[in-house]
Amino acid sequence: MTTALVVVDLQNDFCVGPTAHARYSGDPATLEAVATRTALAVDRARAHDMEVIFVRFVGDAEHQGPSWLRRDRIQNKPLKCREGSWGAEFHRVSPLPGERVFTKRACFDAFLSTGFEQHLVHRGVERLVLAGLYTDVCVDSTARTAFQKGFHITVLTDCTTGRHLPDADVLRFMARLYGAHLSTHDHPWVPQAGEEDACQVSKAASA
């Protein structure tokens, strides 16, 4: 089965600095740990000749639809990951020449970025291994569409964290609804033949 590691929104404004810390209610050390382990997952994928795909978010006002603009106005949300800013740059990871980078313009789902799905199909990718931020927002949005389009899913539970909801709840949800395989950066990412993904849920969710 052809597998690709998809790194979602591992950018400064989500990981480090005043914008990230103001938005994330948990311990900032968790964000740094997620970034560090995701970087290790990237190294591991490259060492095994697995394709690494990077997805980035840009939140400039000109990309926001009416509902997004209204929400930000009502909730007084500042702009984040503005194109060309330090906040939009990758944190702890850096694409190598030839590795693809796809941009989401004020949207959560990687499949809404131009060319993302077409690239997966062209490359014959069947399983997406997801890492990055956040479990309950962009990672889940991408996993949901991937499942509906027929892709198998693995989520690296130690390479993501929730923004609004507890990690364990979101991971159980993805395992139940999408049949997602749950693993960690240092364990097998693809289930062995005959292995039932559901059997991995309790172990991986508690890791």
Q: Spell out the CATH superfamily.
A: Isochorismatase-like
Mean pLDDT: 93
Q: Biggest sheet: strands side by side, in what order? A: 3-2-1-4-5-6
Q: What is the rounded distance between the termini?
A: 25 Å
Description:
Strand 2 (51-58), helix 4 (66-75) and strand 3 (101-105) form a beta-alpha-beta unit. The protein has a six-stranded parallel beta sheet, with helices on both faces. It has a single domain (3-205), classed as Rossmann fold (3-Layer(aba) Sandwich), CATH 3.40.50.850. Helix content is 39%, strand content 16%. The model is unreliable at 196-207 (pLDDT under 50). The protein is an alpha/beta fold.
Keywords:
39% helix; globular; six-stranded parallel beta sheet; 8 helices; alpha/beta; Rossmann fold
List the helices and strands and how they pair.
Elements: E1 3-8, H1 12-15, H2 17-23, H3 28-47, E2 51-58, H4 66-75, E3 101-105, H5 116-123, E4 127-132, H6 135-148, E5 152-156, H7 167-178, E6 181-183, H8 201-205
Parallel strand pairs: 1-2, 1-4, 2-3, 4-5, 5-6
Gist?
This protein is of the alpha/beta class. 39% of the residues lie in helices and 16% in strands.
